[in-house]
Amino acid sequence: MESKSSAEKVLHSGTTHALQAESTLKKGWALKNKREVKRFSKEQIEYMTEKFQFGESTGYKCDPDDVAKEMRHVKNSKGIRKFQLEHFLSPSQIASFFSRLSLKKRQASNTVYDDCDMIAEESRTEMSQLTVLANTAYCDMTTDGGGWTVMLKRYSGSVGFKRTWKECENGFGDINGDFWFGNNYIHILTSSGKYELRVDMVDKNNKTIYAVYKTFVVGDSASKYKLTVGGYSGNAGDYLKSHNGMKFTTEDQDNDTFKTNCADYNTGSWWYFHCSTCDLSRTDKKPYWGSVISKPVMMIRKI
């Protein structure tokens, strides 16, 4: 009896340990290890976004395999490799990023924003084009913190800026090239809060220069889209100062203070007085800001 009792105790003890082990297994066997979420660096995002946007603008989509291979050899302006081994991305990672950009572009086309500054922070390096108010806008998400709604861009010179009043009011040009956002839309934005203006351009020495104005307002159509501007800073010179308080002039609406139409004389559409110290709209001549410049971009952002 004693030996049977001892055996039962051993059996019972063994069964108890087995049940405890089984219980422990059931509680933990299916738990997955937490996956480390690896976020892309700013440089990786900018590189992939540039490749995606090139494909969107040219119609030649970049192959993720080619982008991954090129990433291993691409160099910066100093001839140094942009990415080290630990920063290389696989074709599947790049393809996934491209898919997200494509989805966000489709979503943005169905979303109406008040201005580019309303785009979510995490999307700022990934977005370039969306609907602002009822117009398609180009958004600069990299310059000085991003959030800029571009109102004028002249890179190729392929779009003439000597236009009618209605054209300047509603906007014209190619959103992926040279364009004017439209006086009506600029007025709606700048009358909805305090806005700043930034003007970027390239001088005759091929140096990038800029001008920032902490006050920028365009009046309504009744005021002839009157310009209010002030609070200058930058290295390009305060050449818009003389245009403060001026009305907008086009080839078919002469609102300047000169004896003849400055829009005809300058072949542009601008806030002329008699006539200008700067004019980024000149068509037959190069745009100028105190002197001849190239690649001007005007953009606004809510402060």
TrEMBL record:
<dbReference type="InterPro" id="IPR050373">
    <property type="entry name" value="Fibrinogen_C-term_domain"/>
</dbReference>
<dbReference type="GO" id="GO:0005615">
    <property type="term" value="C:extracellular space"/>
</dbReference>
<dbReference type="InterPro" id="IPR002181">
    <property type="entry name" value="Fibrinogen_a/b/g_C_dom"/>
</dbReference>
<feature type="domain" description="Fibrinogen C-terminal">
    <location>
        <begin position="107"/>
        <end position="303"/>
    </location>
</feature>
<dbReference type="InterPro" id="IPR014716">
    <property type="entry name" value="Fibrinogen_a/b/g_C_1"/>
</dbReference>
<protein>
    <recommendedName>
        <fullName>Fibrinogen C-terminal domain-containing protein</fullName>
    </recommendedName>
</protein>
<dbReference type="Pfam" id="PF00147">
    <property type="entry name" value="Fibrinogen_C"/>
</dbReference>
<dbReference type="InterPro" id="IPR036056">
    <property type="entry name" value="Fibrinogen-like_C"/>
</dbReference>
